Amino acid sequence: MASNYGSDQEMERALREHFEAEAEDLRAPQNLWQSIEGQMDLQPTRHPVTQVRRKILGALKQNWFPMMATGGAVAVAASAVFLASRATQDELQYEASYAAAPAAPAAAAAPAATAAPAMAMPAATPAERVVIKEVPVERVVEKTVVKEVPVERVVRETVVKEVPVEKVVTREVFVEKVVEKVVQVEAAPMKQTPPPAAAAAAPQAAAPQRAATPAPARPPATTFQDYTRQPFVATAEDAVSTFSLDTDRTSYQLALSWLQEGYEIEPDSVRAEEWINAFDYQYELPPDDWGFAITSDVAMHPLDGSKHLVRIGFQAAEVADDRPLNVTLVLDASGSMGDGNRVDIARAAAEAIRQSLRPQDRLAVVHFTEGVIHELTVEHTSPDASVVQRSIQRLAPHGSTNVQAGLNQGVRLADRIRHERPEAYNYVILMSDGVANVDATNPFAILESAYDRNALNPLRLITIGVGINNYNDVLLEQLAQHGNGWYRYLDNTGQAQATFSRDNWLALSTPFADQTRAQVTWDPDLVRSWRIIGYENRVTSDQSFAEDRKEFAEIPSGAATTVFYEIELHDLTRTRAGQEVTLANVELRWVVAETGQSRSQRSEVRGRLDSSLRSSGDPLLELGAIVALSADRYGGLYDGDYVAEISSDLTELEDRLRSLNSSLGGLGAYQDFRFMLEHMAERARAQAPPAAPTGYSR
Amino acid sequence: MTDEQAVLRCQNGEHEAFRHLVERYKDVLFGTAVLMTGNRALAEEQVQEALLAAWRGISGFQSGRPVKPWLVRILVNAVVSQRRRRAIDTVPLETHSHADDRPSPGETVEANLDRQAIREALGGLSRDHRQVVVLRYFADLTVPELAEAIGVREGTVKSRLSRALSQLREQLASGGAREAYSHGQ
Fold first, then answer.
1. pTM for the full model?
2. What is the CATH superfamily name and number for domain A325-508?
């Protein structure tokens, strides 16, 4: 021992020295005054004001007044009241969303709203559907109202009835924060392609694998969501970017499968972050299992000389955790699963999971069609029990699909075993093509019924998608995102076995961090504007960063998440090309899966402004940049006006990717992606207006 | 501007004067909150809440009295009431970012080990004991100030402090915490 703490005096001295040394790390955040001052105006010093109003008014002042002042506030509030009545009081949550398409741009522009009142929320029309979502009532109610007061009454009393118009607006702040997120889900109507008849007419709908020219058709009757892409945001208006991490890669896997089956990649189905995160960038692991290794790279933009590209990587520690598992398989046995080999895939995946489980784990099986097939239900037992094996083997398709019934039963079983074996992690694994057609067919309605109230030992909902035609990507993705889990797509039985091989399963099933989100704060003196690539449905309000929320990502042991930003620097900054500069601060927050404690870790985005992707010497960085930009540009193909630019960008990226062949040509992932990008660029060129100058060299 | 002048000007509604007080005391308040709750996000919220409460209540503050103990008392109340609301309790071990667990330049490995050992020993104290240690040796309150801040008698503060110190000494002497740390290297 270095020091001796023999007496109280020595101990006191040691403590003072200790705290002096710690003080450096315990400094208050720089912007503390700004956050307080924003709320002080609205602090009457003479008569007390409720906590609620204070917070609401503070938030209002910061963000939302200009938007709401332009109108529509009352209508929105009224709709909010209507829908808030759906929320149950013990869940302390409610949902808000607009089904009207015009709401989408307003939501996308939310970060810039203070300076762009012109893009204000359109007045609510009767067509709009408002679902208020996940405003922790604690924040709204707090000291003023007893907790048990139903949400609708809070709304009515504090907002609509008793408070003057200005305060009605304030009530909307919280509603809006979440609306912002849900609007993106609900705004664009889900696109359903014509049923197979139309597709069958397409000449190459059944083209063989790796067809030279895929059919122009998209797979029939598939459902996905076009999330409006994020705009550039001026740091003068908002320098803070907050998003949930994401380890899903399904959008990429789906696209690859479609192409291999002879279909085109659907631009709406592209979620750039899932393409980016499909690749292994070989980040170094953190030195111990406390947290993450956060790395950042800055390089000149490969497509635009006036911009830079920033990559931030979050590598989770690899932890060994031998807590047992409670696993509940919920298998879709409906008729649509009879298409192609999807039942075989689901069966193979279920069996692979069973074989990867250890003796201390417990496994249950639920089959569902229009209801639960009770004779095949197996309650939690040893994974080696013959009754489990038999139940998995007997998975066969018939009838319609009631995902809600299946999930309900799965959650019931999982909840029971969770109480019997509280020391175990809990997984509910749904295998389905996502085509729910009985009872609740909307992800939020399904989740609501499967609502999990035990935050400390949560149920983790993993969704496994199978099938190409007639596939509902939105349902499965949203279920996992809001169910504290993750989402994978399986294309064939081999992939099912590989994904759930014992080693993979052990890593995937060991949660490392829950509710993981990041906040990047750009230095407004150096950076003029920024734009996040992808993460459209993971971007969240800056305020929510401080809250542990279930829809933030669950990160398994050893998993990595990567994010790319396009940034534009001030002219003055660009003169500092040869120097290393700090462009942003990064903070990561999460809840330790094992203990439920909240943690936070900080880092910086640093780099030289004159470095290029090529000079970085890391071909995987360049590959990631190409993946990010191509997914981003291609995803915009349906947005309309920029086809010529998209086509030119994709062609340039294609050339760049080709030049990586010497360093990455040996990787299967590289070859797959090259195959994809060639088709994407080809399609964009075919769609570009013939007369437009393309700007590319060939 | 002295604290006393600042208080008077605050009572006239001058934001700038309050800013002066915030800038002067924010670090000690934030550090105290982090050490008490072990959660930086929560601490930030509590400090904000406490400072806003102080602003609201400053018209009733008797100028000339020391400001820091008053602010700390409001903060302690915010922490306690939030703890009741949230029923969250974590230990200070969780508050430190990665870099903190490594020696900083100029700091010897040994000194760093000592910091870690003391941190862990603090984490082993009961909430009440940790609270008095933090307020006494980090926030640097006197015993009477401390007693007022947490609403107990001075004698109680003294006995809590003395028990906390001997428990810390015991724990550090046993070296249990140290072994656990080395093991992790």
1. 0.53
2. von Willebrand factor, type A domain (3.40.50.410)
